[in-house]
């Protein structure tokens, strides 16, 4: 009798633990299943501008509030919608739940296989909560297993006059070698002698003076191993390796450094990370196909890019959603780094970095970094069902210099565009001939 009772209690406890674990994953990936967040006076379809910015200051990041208050642009409020990540990524998180831990040193992680390493809600009582959020971003589903921005336009603009000073046309490619969940091979490439986690390849297509400039980044599975980064300059006709310090230089004269790509393009071990709390914040999430789109860069297949307006043409014409956000600060370990800190507004559902504020070494706000997120089911046909939150437009606004660089994407979740040979130094040399 006692044994049967004990077994029943053990089974009930196991079911309870299982249910609790399931709740952890569901709460992490489906934060709006019980309803969207709300704020007094905020409604779908309204506009936030200089006349009412004070009313909504609590749900705006500081730079966005100042820009709206100063009349630089107006924010259109959209409906908060769920950006469900791919089911395989969610399931990988379930399978790996409770198996992942931080190492003794910054940049060390134990037991990670795939999915979101730390889906549990961050706690202010946990001194390493910020570091766990950073790992969730690093191993997030941003661009999935492989994707391309094909093509990608950057425009350099004067904030005061709105003059477009320069337009560059790129192709960007992303490939995960390990921790893959959707595209074959899963979970990793068998032929990976350098034990890479991820690679990024960039090629400039226009204009002529920088045509065929190429960038290649290899990120090791070991976060404490420095990235290998190569640059091919067409006029020099040779590949050269970039030092770690050069990833914080302006890339091709833009307001962006290589370390800024995707919100943060560096190692966990390069920064100290601190969790600053959970809030509901307006973020640039939208349905691409429902926007009034640009007509000056239309593709042959009819694809239209996000348009820009506001002061200097520095602000994307998109809708914004009230979303659950983790506020995450990162400050460089290297004392010679050109910034003092970044404040990332991490989308709690997708773990993308749609808003980042960058502060100079004196601690003053330097740059306002925005990456608009488009729902994959309201974008290109090939992106539907991919579960990838599509980077769709960016604005890097240098507030101190009165200048911005804007980006217009044609993001494609398509492994055929990302052959492994693209991500090699040999390919850079071959393309440069």
**What string, H for helix and E for strand, traces the elements in order?**
HEHEHEEHEEEEEEEEEEEEEEEEH
Proportion in helices: 10-25%
Tell me the distance between the termini.
81 Å
Major sheet characteristics = 16 strands, mixed
- Annotation field: number of helices: 5
Alpha-carbon Rg, integer: 22 Å
Count of DSSP E strands? 20
Instruction: Please state the overall shape, judged from the principal axes of the Cα atoms.
Output: globular
Summarize model confidence as the mean pLDDT: 94
Judging by the overall fold, what is the CATH architecture of the domain at 146-432? Answer: Clam
Q: Would you state the CATH class of the domain at 146-432?
A: Mainly Beta
Pfam families: DUF1329
InterPro entries: DUF1329
Signal peptide: 1-22
Keywords: Signal
Detailed description of the structure:
It is built from 5 helices and 20 strands. It has helices spanning 2-29, 62-69, 87-96, 129-138, 425-432, and strands at 47-48, 75-77, 101-102, 109-110, 146-158, 164-176, 196-206, 214-220, 228-233, 238-241, 271-283, 285-286, 308-309, 315-316, 319-332, 339-347, 355-360, 365-374, 390-398, 403-412. The chain is 15% helix and 32% strand. It has a domain at 146-432: Lipoprotein localisation LolA/LolB/LppX (outer membrane lipoprotein receptor (LolB), chain A, Clam). The protein is α+β, with helices and mostly antiparallel strands and 433 residues long. It is globular and about 55 Å long. The protein has a 16-stranded mixed beta sheet that branches. A two-stranded antiparallel ribbon has the order 3-4.
